[in-house]
Amino acid sequence: MTDEKKSNSNHKAPGKVGIYICYCGGNISDHVDVEAVRDRVEKLPGVSVARTNMFMCSDPGQELIMEDLKNGTVNRVVVASCAPSLHETTFRNTLLRAGMNPYVYDHANIREQVSWVHHGQAATDKATRLVSAAAAKAEQLTPLDPIRVEAKSHAAVIGGGIAGLRAAKDLAERGITVTLIEKSPFLGGQLARLDRIAPTGDRAEDLVKDLAGQVLANSKIIVHTCSVVAHFEGYVGNFVLGVNKQPPTFLPGEDKNKPGSLDGVNPGDYVPFSGVYPNPVPAEAETLTIEAGVIVLATGFKSYVPRRGEFGYRDFKEVITLTDLIQILAETSADGGRLTVDGRKIRSIAMIHCVGSRQIPGIHPEDESGNLNEYCSRTCCSATLNAANIIRKTYPGTSVYEFYRDIRTYGRGQEDLYNDAAKNKVVFLRYEAEDAPQVVENRDSSDYPLRVRVHDTLTFGEEVDVPADLVVLATGMEPAGIPELVEMMKLPVGTDRFLLEVHPKLRPVELPQAGILLAGTCQAPMDVGEACNGAGSAAVKAAALLGRGYVELDPFVAEVDAAKCNGSGACVEACLVDGALRMVETSVDGRTVQRAEVTPAMCAGCGACVAVCSQNAIDINGWTLKQYEAMVDRIVAADVAA
Q1: What are the start-end ranges of the E strands in 412-449?
Q2: Least confident piece of the model among 354-358, 471-475, 603-607
Q3: Where are the alpha helices (DSSP H) in 98-222?
């Protein structure tokens, strides 16, 4: 028995539409009678052939479509399978390989819209109607040409952390001129605030210095520090950024979390826990205009700041964050005994995991904006275990207690950190989210300043009091605050407030806005390796876009029939994308009149303009009103599901 089955019908309609229905390995066929759908739709007007296959996106499935196209059996294609966002590009390329225009194809989603939400006869009937509607539309599809726009061989990278540096370097090595825009005076981002990277033990300073050095030495990379994007316009291949470059708004050395004093620091020097100082800070404000073909967003993350009183933070001076501890460890000389912090010998350290991560509605309070960080920050467990191991090996007189919900050492070599911690006699105590540890002042005769009280689930809920000289909060990652960029560029933001890619597997570094790409932790919590890999992917994608000197875009954009347009301007008012539609003066019968004009490269194809045009003078290529009418007529037809 084969996965593909041919139609037994001899019905051949002039439309020559081919319908190809996917079993999807049971995802569809477990709830939709795929063969019954095929039997019904092959009898529809305009349908030349109907076939099924276990996986239509597979090579055999695509070969099935290509064979019918090449031998002239069909000249229009309908694929009924999973969501078009997954494989629309796959099937358009199938048509291209068969020598056909890729836009004489339509897609019916019978997985997400049918088999995953309906069962039994209702699922089969709905699938039939959706496939029938797609076939009705396919009959009216006409070949379209992609929109070609010239592309400047120049990339703008926003953010000078490890991901931005890597993206800039990789792009420059492919011959593309790069402008790197960083808001602080330093390069290195959050990585520069670390000491050693787990689990490899590499020094963060060495990684930043090496990568920043390569960037600064490359003549194709222009670095602007103390700079922010204040203006944005254009489209893929032709973006224009207005950049404000101004002196820092703080006095160097005011805050240990901000760059230290610049006295004696020369361009190219590395400032500990700040980064590489590439250029002198500007003496006065100036405005720059940068033209770029693509934009890479590498805006990074910020560390969660515990609210006052959260595990005693800001109530007790002995409660610090993991970032603070990492800097203390880097600046403290080992004496073989106990760790010293602010002149105090530390006998016992309590480390609390998941502070600002994996927050649960109803258990954890929202921040002032009503947000909760419900995601795992992914790197905190490994970083905390790494710090614990360093303390136990370097200061054996200091005991370490880890209070955790779950240990998530997910990366290569990171589980070894967990095993090493056990060997180094780190004590683990597990708590539930709804019964978090309590950090209280120690009021008994002991000279420990704090106690951490927890119901340890490893000992079946026994209450354990741990005396502590120091409490360390393993704070998670939050997206960097870039509301201005989000508003200017209309960037999609997920429920976690990180920037949202088109698809995590198929288009992991792309945004819906063509030509704007993601790199690093602006899209999700990542470790250093993952951030660099993401930056490399963005660079490859950007280089592919710019490599030919032009970019081809899908032609699903608005088109104005100037003969019908009366110049009311309603479409321009309804347009959701600034600059996609505008009113221009033209001459009609010797008179100067206003008519709507589309900028195809900027049009999103949303159809808002179509809905408000009283003259039906505007339509969307590939989604015309007549095609919609044909689909609706077929859906409501009484005999479709019979």
Answers
A1: 427-430, 438-441
A2: 603-607
A3: 120-139, 162-173, 204-217
Nearest to 640 by CA among 55, 31, 135, 203: 135
Q: Which residues contact 574 (CB under 8 A, 6 or more apart)?
A: 608, 609, 611, 612
Q: Which of 556, 631, 626, 552 is nearest to 132 (CA)?
A: 631
**Banded pLDDT at 411 (limits 50, 70, 90):** confident
In the chain, % helix, strand, coil (3-state, to 5) comes to 30, 30, 45
Strand partners, 581: 598
571, containing H or E segment: helix 570-574
State whether residue 595 is helix, strand or coil. strand
CA atoms within 13 A on the CB side of 450: 26
pLDDT at 117 over 90: yes
Reported as a single tens digit per residue, the pLDDT across 350-381 is 999 999 999 999 999 999 999 999 999 999 99
- pLDDT at residue 336 above 90? no
**Torsion of the alpha carbons at 60, 62, 66 and 67, rounded to the nearest 10:** 20
Do 352 and 472 form a contact (C-beta atoms < 8 A)?
A: yes
Using one digit for the tens of pLDDT, what is the confidence trace for 124-158?
A: 999 999 999 999 999 999 999 999 999 999 999 99
Residue 472 carries which side chain, given as an amino acid letter? V
Q: Which H or E run includes 611?
A: helix 608-612
In the chain the first and final C-alpha atoms are separated, in Å, by: 28
Secondary structure of 235-262 in the HEC alphabet? ECCEEEEEEEECCCCCCCCCCCCCCCCC
Task: Supply the mean pLDDT for the chain.
Answer: 92
Q: Residue 377: in which H helix or E strand, if any?
A: none
**Six-digit token string for 494:** 């997920």
- Find the DSSP H helices in 400-512: 415-423, 483-489
What is the model's pTM? 0.87
Nearest-angstrom CA–CA distance, 508 and 501: 6
Q: Specify the pairing of strand 177-181 against strand 221-224.
A: parallel
Q: How many degrees, rounded to 5, is the angle at CA 381 between CA 378 and CA 382?
A: 95
Residues 6+ apart with CB under 8 A from 549: 150, 151, 153
For residue 294, what pLDDT is reported? 98
Choose among 439, 430, 310, 405: nearest CA to 364.
310
Running DSSP on this structure, what letter comes out for residue 341? E
Is residue 573 classed as helix, strand or coil in its secondary structure?
helix
Q: Report which residue type is found at 542.
A: A
Secondary structure letter of residue 212 according to DSSP: H
